[in-house]
Structures are given as C-alpha cells and as structure tokens.
Design brief:
The chain is mainly β. It contains one helix and six strands. It has one helix at residues 35-38; strands at residues 2-13, 16-24, 29-34, 47-55, 65-74, 81-93. The strands form two sheets. The chain has a four-stranded antiparallel sheet with strand order 3-2-5-6. A two-stranded antiparallel ribbon has the order 1-4. Strand 2 (16-24) and strand 3 (29-34) form a beta hairpin. It is elongated and about 40 Å long.
C-alpha cells in the first residue's frame, strides 16, 4: 500500500511530524505509522510545503472496509500540538 499526502502552510512548521493510521469500519485503529518512529528525520526544520509518501510493504487485512486517517503534528512545544487531522480521509476495500 502506498499513501501520498501533500501539505502547504502559510508559515513554516518546525519539528513537524506526520501520522497515518489504518482503521476498520468500526473505527478501531489497526495500525499506525508515525514519522516520529518510522522516519524521525523525515522533515527538515521549518518547512512550509511538501509531499510525504508512506509505503507499507505488507499490510495483513481481512476482507472488509477500511479507512486511512492523517495527522500533522508539531513537537515544537512541551506538549505536541495537532496542526491538522483528517479522520477517515480515505476509504478502501479489501
């Protein structure tokens, strides 16, 4: 599975990280792919726009309906701040 996300902001974001989650039809999170774990140096400091591609080589899912949720977060403060989140942005069937 390959997921591509483009982003653009009016001002640069420092310590920006992305999250992609796979959820089932009941809304239960089955897998999460946070850039803090998968690719901690993915985004350079103070970036305003770009495209992130997440390739998942093997995703074991049973037949059914699934959703992809996207998250952009800044870790620039003592507490992480969600800058954007799109719950169940993409629906797909297996």
């Amino acid at each position: 599975m390959k997921v591509a996300v483009s982003f653009k902001r009016d001002k640069p974001i420092s310590q920006m990280h992305f999250g992609i989650a796979i959820e089932n039809a009941a809304g239960q999170r089955l897998s999460a792919f946070p850039s803090t774990v998968q690719a901690p140096n993915l985004v350079p400091e103070s970036v305003q726009e770009g495209k992130i591609i997440c390739e998942i080589p093997c995703l074991h899912l049973s037949q059914g309906t699934y959703y992809v949720t996207f998250l952009i977060r800044s870790l620039n403060s003592p507490h992480p701040l969600d800058l954007d989140r799109i719950n169940q942005a993409v629906k797909f069937n297996v």
